C-alpha cells in the first residue's frame, strides 16, 4: 500500500468515525469529539471542516453540557443538503420519499397502479417518473439526493428478484433494467425487511420486535437489539407462507392454507365483499357483519402464525403495519385472543401487540433510511464529490 492510499483510507475511516459520533452525540464540540473518538483535535478539526464543506454537518453554537469555560461551537448533523430517496414497488401502488441526513422526511409521493397488469419494464419506467419528480422536488428544496434504495415485494439477491409471485415476476434483474434509467442506481431490497427498518428508524422506538407488513402478500421483519435478522439467504420473514390450515386453499407459492390466503389484503377484501381497504374500514366503523367476520377470521389466522413466530423468536413486541394498521381496531382482538390462548399457559411473558404509526409508509421510509445510514457510516464519497464540484455550482 502506498503512503497516499494509506492516507486516503485513513481519512475515509476518520470521516466515518467523526460523522457517526456526531449522529450519536450531537450537538457536540470538536474537543468532545476528539475525546470520544480518540482522534487528535487537529484531525477532528480537519474532518469537521470537510464535513462542513460537504453540507453534512452544521455549526449550531449551542454550548455542550458539562463543559467549563467558554462554550465551544457545537457541531450537529445538517438536514440542509444531503438526502436519500426511498422507492417502493408494491402490487397495487408505487411510492417514493425523500429523507434528509437527520432522518427528517422531506417529501412523499404515492400513486395507485395495478402493477400485476404491467410488465416489469413498464412498472420500472413508471417508477422512474415518480423517482425523477421526487429528485427534482428535493432539488428545489436545496437537497442533493445522494443515493436510493428500491423496495420490492419479494426476495432479492444482488439486484435480482428471483420471485415476486404477487407481481407475477420471476428472475427479474431490476438492477440491469434500471441501469442508465435511474441515477444513482438504487440498491434493491426486500419490502418486508425495509418496512421493519422503517419501523426501527422512524417508528415508536422499539429495538426488539417483529414487524408484520400486511399488503397483498404478508411479510415480516425481525429486529433484534436494533439489527435486522435476514436469515442465511436473506429470505427470513416470509410470514405470509406460514401454513395455518394445511387443507386450506392453494397458494401462489405452491403450498396450501398459507396465512396470506386468510389475512392477505385480497383474501380479506374478498371475504368482506369490499373493493378497497378504505371501503372495508368504513364498513367496519358502521358495524357491518360481513366485514367484522372477515377481520375476525383474518385475525385468528394471523394469531396462529404469530404464535409460531413467538415460539421461534420470542420478540419483545409485535408491530402490525401496512394495511393491518388501519384495520388494527378490528383485527387485534382476534390476534390477541388466539395468541394468548396458545402462549399464556407456558409463557409468563407474552409479547405486546402494537400498531405501526407508519402504516404503509414504513417501507419507503426504511429504504431511504438505509441509504442515510450507509452515507453516515462511509461519507468519503460525498465529501469528495462536493469538493470536486466547481465553486458556487448548484447541486445536481
Ligand atoms: Zn403460500
UniProtKB/TrEMBL annotation:
<dbReference type="Pfam" id="PF00480">
    <property type="entry name" value="ROK"/>
</dbReference>
<protein>
    <submittedName>
        <fullName>Sugar kinase</fullName>
    </submittedName>
</protein>
<comment type="similarity">
    <text>Belongs to the ROK (NagC/XylR) family.</text>
</comment>
<dbReference type="InterPro" id="IPR000835">
    <property type="entry name" value="HTH_MarR-typ"/>
</dbReference>
<dbReference type="InterPro" id="IPR043129">
    <property type="entry name" value="ATPase_NBD"/>
</dbReference>
<feature type="domain" description="HTH marR-type">
    <location>
        <begin position="18"/>
        <end position="62"/>
    </location>
</feature>
<dbReference type="Pfam" id="PF12802">
    <property type="entry name" value="MarR_2"/>
</dbReference>
<keyword id="KW-0808">Transferase</keyword>
<dbReference type="InterPro" id="IPR000600">
    <property type="entry name" value="ROK"/>
</dbReference>
<dbReference type="GO" id="GO:0003700">
    <property type="term" value="F:DNA-binding transcription factor activity"/>
</dbReference>
<dbReference type="InterPro" id="IPR036388">
    <property type="entry name" value="WH-like_DNA-bd_sf"/>
</dbReference>
<keyword id="KW-0418">Kinase</keyword>
<dbReference type="InterPro" id="IPR036390">
    <property type="entry name" value="WH_DNA-bd_sf"/>
</dbReference>
<dbReference type="GO" id="GO:0016301">
    <property type="term" value="F:kinase activity"/>
</dbReference>
Amino acid at each position: 500500500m502506498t503512503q497516499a492510499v494509506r492516507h486516503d483510507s485513513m481519512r475515509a475511516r476518520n470521516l466515518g468515525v467523526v460523522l457517526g459520533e456526531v449522529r450519536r452525540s450531537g450537538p457536540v464540540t470538536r474537543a468532545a469529539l476528539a475525546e470520544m473518538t480518540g482522534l487528535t483535535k487537529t484531525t477532528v478539526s480537519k474532518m469537521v471542516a470537510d464535513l462542513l464543506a460537504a453540507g453534512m454537518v452544521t455549526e449550531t453554537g449551542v454550548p455542550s453540557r458539562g463543559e467549563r469555560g467558554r462554550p465551544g461551537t457545537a457541531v450537529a448533523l445538517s438536514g440542509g443538503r444531503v438526502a436519500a430517496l426511498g422507492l417502493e414497488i408494491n402490487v397495487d401502488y408505487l411510492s417514493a420519499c425523500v429523507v434528509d441526513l437527520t432522518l427528517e422526511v422531506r417529501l412523499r409521493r404515492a400513486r395507485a397502479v395495478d402493477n400485476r397488469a404491467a410488465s416489469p419494464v413498464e412498472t420500472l419506467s413508471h417508477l422512474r417518473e415518480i423517482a425523477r419528480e421526487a429528485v427534482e422536488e428535493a432539488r428545489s428544496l436545496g437537497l442533493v439526493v445522494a443515493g436510493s434504495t428500491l423496495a420490492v415485494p419479494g426476495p432479492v439477491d444482488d439486484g435480482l428478484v428471483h420471485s415476486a409471485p404477487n407481481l407475477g415476476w420471476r428472475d427479474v434483474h431490476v438492477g440491469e433494467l434500471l441501469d442508465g434509467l435511474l441515477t444513482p442506481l438504487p440498491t434493491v431490497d426486500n419490502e418486508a425487511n425495509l418496512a421493519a427498518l422503517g419501523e426501527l428508524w422512524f417508528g415508536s422506538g422499539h429495538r426488539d420486535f417483529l414487524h408484520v407488513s400486511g399488503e397483498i402478500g404478508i411479510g415480516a421483519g425481525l429486529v433484534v437489539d436494533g439489527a435486522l435478522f435476514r436469515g442465511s439467504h436473506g429470505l427470513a420473514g416470509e410470514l405470509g407462507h406460514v401454513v395455518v390450515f394445511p387443507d386450506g386453499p392453494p397458494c401462489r407459492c405452491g403450498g396450501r392454507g398459507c396465512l396470506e390466503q386468510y389475512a392477505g389484503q385480497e383474501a380479506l377484501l374478498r371475504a368482506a365483499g369490499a373493493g378497497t381497504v378504505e371501503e372495508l374500514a368504513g364498513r367496519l366503523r358502521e358495524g357491518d357483519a360481513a366485514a367484522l367476520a372477515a377481520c375476525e377470521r383474518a385475525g385468528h389466522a394471523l394469531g396462529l402464525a404469530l404464535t409460531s413466530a413467538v415460539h421461534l423468536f420470542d420478540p419483545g413486541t409485535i408491530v402490525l403495519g401496512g394495511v393491518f394498521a388501519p384495520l388494527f381496531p378490528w383485527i387485534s382482538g382476534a390476534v390477541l385472543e388466539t395468541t394468548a390462548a396458545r402462549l399464556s399457559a407456558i409463557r409468563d411473558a407474552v409479547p405486546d401487540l402494537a400498531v405501526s404509526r407508519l402504516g404503509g409508509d414504513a417501507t419507503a421510509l426504511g429504504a431511504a433510511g438505509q441509504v442515510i445510514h450507509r452515507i453516515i457510516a462511509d461519507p468519503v464519497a460525498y465529501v469528495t464529490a462536493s469538493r470536486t464540484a466547481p465553486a458556487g455550482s448548484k447541486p445536481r
